[in-house]
């Protein structure tokens, strides 16, 4: 196999992994080498909750090395900011000079310390109650990627809009009217305040709530195809006395019906 064929293989891998909702893909190409790395959640292989990475290295001398790794990391909490993870990594390849196959397998660990801020973090073993309409708090939403942000002058709040993988992929592809089924938008809301060392800078203050819109046209036909839910405070208490609270949410979003009931426009990013 020559280098052009390896590049073609990499491009084929890009196409395949883009359909698999890859979180991250890197390609490094030169005249002599080609290297591709793709990272995603391990749900891609039917076992969610771990970090998965797959890579391929190839050069013009027909050497190639395929590597794969899996890292299982406990989620940080306010009570336990220090977390430990364990992972495995394997290498498989073939060298042209000397002409031999190579294989290696390793087990390692990782330590992380998460600095707590004014953002909800569930204590270890604690379960957050579902919203009155039965919607569960999306697991791991604190690690979702940013789609946009906003500032409301009427109630003096800062908002960061996040998305799950399906939402981020749709936002980057411009396929947001309508948003696809499976997309989940999260909005984290803080009271605004002035930075103590720079009064003209507006920064997050007290955390207010986390709210979500879940796109499922068949499940939520009466509210524009969206399920609504909100949890208030750092202790994430479900909002609403009963399931009828969604009418309040839907009524607020009705003015943007022509934008699939979504106020947010994804912000331009490099």
Protein traits:
single chain, 270 residues, mainly beta, Chalcone isomerase, six-stranded antiparallel sheet, 43% strand
Describe the structure.
The protein is mainly β. It folds into 2 domains: 3-113; 141-259, Chalcone isomerase (3-Layer(bba) Sandwich). The chain is 13% helix and 43% strand. The protein has helices at residues 3-19, 165-173, 246-253; strands at 24-29, 33-41, 50-59, 64-73, 82-95, 100-113, 145-152, 157-163, 184-195, 198-215, 226-232, 237-238. The longest helix has 17 residues, at 3-19. The model has no long low-confidence stretch (mean pLDDT 82).
* Biggest sheet statistics: 6 strands, antiparallel
At CATH level 3, the topology of the largest domain is Chalcone isomerase
Q: What integer is the average pLDDT?
A: 82
Strand order of the largest sheet: 1-2-3-4-5-6
- Poorly predicted regions are none
């Amino acid at each position: 196999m020559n280098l052009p064929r390896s590049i073609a293989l990499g491009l084929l891998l890009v196409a395949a992994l883009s359909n698999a909702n890859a979180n991250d893909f890197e390609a490094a190409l030169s005249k002599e080498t080609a290297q591709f790395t793709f990272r995603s959640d391990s749900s891609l292989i039917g076992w969610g909750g771990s970090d998965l990475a797959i890579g391929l290295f190839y050069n013009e001398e027909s050497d190639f090395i395929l590597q794969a790794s899996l890292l299982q990391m406990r989620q940080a909490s306010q009570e336990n900011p220090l977390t430990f993870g364990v992972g495995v990594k394997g290498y498989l390849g073939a060298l042209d000079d000397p002409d031999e196959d190579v294989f290696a397998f390793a087990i390692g660990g990782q330590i992380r310390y998460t600095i707590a801020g004014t953002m909800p973090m569930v204590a270890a073993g604690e379960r957050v109650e579902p919203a009155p309409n039965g919607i569960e708090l999306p697991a791991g939403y604190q690690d979702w990627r940013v789609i946009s942000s906003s500032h409301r002058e009427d109630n003096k709040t800062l908002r960061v809009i996040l998305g799950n993988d399906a939402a981020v992929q749709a936002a980057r592809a411009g396929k947001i009217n309508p948003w696809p089924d499976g997309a989940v938008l999260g909005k984290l809301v803080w009271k605004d305040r002035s930075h103590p060392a720079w009064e003209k800078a507006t920064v997050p203050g007290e955390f207010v709530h986390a709210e979500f819109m879940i796109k499922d046209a068949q499940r939520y036909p009466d509210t524009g195809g969206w399920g609504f839910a909100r949890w208030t405070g750092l202790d994430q208490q479900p909002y609403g006395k009963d399931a009828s609270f969604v009418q309040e949410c839907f009524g607020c979003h009705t003015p943007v019906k022509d934008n699939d009931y979504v106020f947010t426009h994804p912000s331009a990013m490099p």
